[in-house]
Structure formats: C-alpha cells, structure tokens
Amino acid sequence: MNSLTMLEHLTRNARLNAAVLLVVVLLLAALVIFALR
Amino acid sequence: MHTPRNSRHRPSGPWPVLALYVLFVVAPLVIAAFGAARERGFVTELAIGAGLVALAMLLLQFISSGRHERISGGAGIDRTMRFHQLSAWVLFALVILHPLLLVLPSSLDDLLNAPGQVPARLAMMAGAPFLRSGVLALVLLVVLVALAALRTRISLRYEIWRASHLVLALVVVAASLHHALAAGQYSSEGFLKAWWVLLGIGALASTGYAHVLKPVLQARAAWRVKSNQADGEGVRELVLESVKGEGLKYAAGQFIWVGFGRLPFPLGDHPYSLASSPREGTDLRLLIKARGDFSAAAGAIAPGTPVYVDGPHGDFFIEGRDADAIALIAGGIGIAPVSGILRDLAQAGDRRPVALLYGVRNLERMSGRAVITSAARALDLQTEFVLEEPPPDWQGGSGAITPEAVLRTLRGQDPRRCLCLLCGPTGMMLAAEQTLLRAGVPAANIVYEQFDYA
Asked: What band does B13 get if pLDDT is binned at 50, 70 and 90?
C-alpha cells in the first residue's frame, strides 16, 4: 500500500468509496443469507 | 487527434466490472449453498462463508493488480489499484474473522462460563496438522498486509517490497487453496472445487501475463534515453526515443510505467506522467523528481540506456471532455502532466481560455518554465504562481494555494462549462476540488491525477 492514510482513501474518491461500500454491503448480505439458509 | 486507449468515457463505465466482481465473489456461497446440506449453526456457517468469500477475493486480487486495461478500462487503472488496496482490507478482515468465528462458543452462557475456551480452541486449531496450510496462509497474509501498509513508514525499498508482495501473495494463495481443498467441507466437493481451480488458473494466468508475457512484449517495442537534463532543482527531464520510431499512442496528461536499463522485469518499474504532447512527435518526455528510491538515482541515467514502457495509463486528459474553458492546477512535480497538456493545447492551437495555477516550494524548484512561456505565446493563457518560499522581490502568491486563487482559474466563465485538471499533493487536490465543487463545477469536470498509488 502507499503513504496515503485510510482517511484519505475514504475522502479522496467518493464514487470509488461508494462502490467499495456497496460491494461490502452486498457481500455481507450474501454471507448472512448463506449462514441463515 | 490521438484517441486514448482507456478513456473513462466508455459507455459501460466501471459498473459491469464491479457487478462481475460481486458475482465471482458470491459465487462460492451460491455453489456451496446448493451443493451440500447445511449441518452447522449460524456462526459456524458465517465463519465458513467468510472464508469462502475471502478466498475468492484473494484470487481476484491477482486480476485487479495486473494492470489489465481491458478489465479496468472503464474505471481507470488508478482506481483499479485503489480498489485493490481497499478490497485487500475487506478480505483481510474476513480472513481474521474466519478462525475467530469458528472458535466462538455457541452461546453467550458458554462464553461467560468458560472464557478460557476461546484461546484454548484457537491454540488447538493453530496446532492441528490438517489446518497447517490455513495457519500458514493466515500468518503470511498478516505479514503481507503489514508490509504493504507500513512500506513507506519502515522505508522498505519499492522494488523489494513489490517482489516480496508478489512472492508472499503467491504463497498465501497456494496455501489458502490447499487449505480450502484439504480442510474445507464445501470446497472439497465437485463444483466448488472446480470453481477454485478455475479461479486459481485465472489468477496464475493474470500474474503470468503481467510479470512474464507483458515484459517480453514490451522488450520488443523498446525505447532508449535520448537526453537527461535538469529542469528545476532536484527535477530531471528525461526524453525517451523509440528505437524503431514507432511511438506510443497516448493523450497528453496520461502516464506510463517505466523500467530503466536492466532486463524487462516490471518489479523494477515506476509510474511517471508524460510531460510531452503526442502532436510534437514520437519522443516521450518525463519529469522525475529526486525523491524516493529510484527517483533519486534518475540523474545518473545515461543517454542510450534502454527503457521499457508500459502504457499509456490514466484518464488525466482533455480529449473527449466537453468544456468551454480549461483550468490547470499543479502542485510541485504535478506540473509534469500539466506541462504535457499545455504543450498539446499550444500545438493544437486551442482557442479556449486556459488558466494555470502552479504551486511550488521556490523559484529554483519550478519546472517546465520554458514550456509555460511558449504556451503563453500560443494560447489565451492566464498563469499564477504560488511559492511556499518566495524570494524578497516576489510579486506572485506565497504560501499555500488559496481558494481565491483556485476560483481565479475559472476566469469568470460558467463553472458548469469549465474543465479542471488537478495534479499535486493529495491535500492540495482535495482542497481545490472542494472549492471548485462549491463554485458549481460539476464533479465530472474535475479530473485529478495522483502519483502515489504504485
């Protein structure tokens, strides 16, 4: 990784962060559905 | 007109790739859910699911790090690299959760009555022979992530870090695959096993392409250093010429990965912005600041040195973007791609109002002065220089770049019709971006380039 802090990552590119957040939410939802099935 | 290969303005954008990513990561869960009956509790299934998702993400890391223009085209290689970094944290969290959830007592009562159970179970898992490959993968992944996150803080040489990153990643993935196939109950069955083999082959192919095939192809279209001279204090201007005179199809402002001297091996290469215009001929110009492991030695690169070029990359360019006025904001060595764009606009005889705001430490460190002077003759160019350490008789701005100076780059034009290109330190770009957004410049018209994502 590089010298940028996580905070900078999170504030730097709103669209990218939103995309990653969306991926994480989808994955967590899939995980819960998997475990609950 | 040179059309860049990787324009961000492809109709598809990054969403199809992202959807495909989610599909590939969730696929093992779906295969496992349909492939075998569920026999364990919620927490255990969650732990197993976390392991499955983490393994899929780990394998896909090899694809996102491979600089594949076709895959990351819609998003841009820089965003793909950042996605690689951010998803690494997510997969790391899942990997840590995987064993922790497995040793968690099944109820709160158990946890309260026998708190010693958790470390005891963990110790048992760590020592179990059939889990050895999993433990190895976990430990090495911790090392890999720590090295990546702390690389600059512990001043690890870039080349050494990158080599270690690749080797560690390959061992981690091999151990993880072994762990899944040997210890996993879902993964040892038909379809999921085939899925892992498929993803494993994909990851290996991506790595082989990036580290073996691509360098060999690059070696064929070789470049060499034509000249190497100072352009401002601590900055070298390197001109590269194509050995076969074939040139490179790029847009002014894009960047390339460059390897000097030795046999082509992308572990040794670095990203640099092009400070030239494709309209001026086939020579490529780089401005290299004497900073970091390699950059410091840039002064010693002799003319005639062979150069391997991978690119062009990035979406820091004007082509394909509709605007009535252009604002260029550069900080420090961020002037490199900006001077390439200035050259390009001047060569094209662009009639639109252009503004350049350039912040730099002091007059001695200022690069691209000749370019700016000649661009000012050819263009409707407004320039403003801000020096952190101005000389006593300095007439321009001093200190940091102010919001007022940023607003002046819009030259009184309709902010919605201005295209703003920013290149410099993160803090500077972040502040300028906020000012421009507040002034009414649409986010899509603010383009920035960052060096620090190698």
From this structure: low
Type of residue found at B316: F
Which B positions 395-454 lie with beta carbon below 8 A of chain A? 426, 430, 443, 450, 452-454
**DSSP letter string over B31-80?**
HHHHHS---S-HHHHHHHHHHHHHHHHHHHHHHHTS--HHHHTTT-HHHH
Say yes or no for a CB contact (<8 Å) between A26 and B22: yes
Dump pLDDT digits (tens) for B103-160.
877 666 677 777 777 788 888 888 888 999 999 999 999 999 999 989 878 888 777 8
H/E run at residue B369:
helix B369-378
Whether ipTM exceeds 0.85: no
With b for 16 or more beta-carbon neighbours within 10 A and e for fewer, the B426-444 pattern comes to bebbebbbebbeebebeee
- Alpha-carbon distance A10 to nearest alpha carbon in chain B (angstroms): 9
pLDDT digits (tens, 9 = 90+) for B264-282: 454 556 788 999 999 999 9
Nearest to A1 among B53, B85, B443 (CB): B85
Residue type at position B78 = D
CA distances from B290 to B231, B237, B238, B271, B338 (A): 11, 11, 12, 14, 19
Q: Which two tokens stand for residue B132?
A: 């050895």
Statement: the pTM of the whole predicted model exceeds 0.80 = no
> How far is it, in rounded angstroms, from Cα B328 to Cα B338?
7
Which of B135-144, B225-234, B292-301 ranks highest by mean pLDDT?
Answer: B135-144
DSSP conformation class of B285:
E
Flag whether residue B50 sits within 8 Å of chain A, measured between CB atoms: yes
Provide the 3-class DSSP secondary structure of residue B362.
coil
Assign A30 to helix, strand or coil.
Answer: helix
Alpha carbon distance B3, A6 (integer Å): 34
What is the pairing mode between strands B306-313 and B284-289?
unpaired
For residue B95, pLDDT over 90 is answered with yes
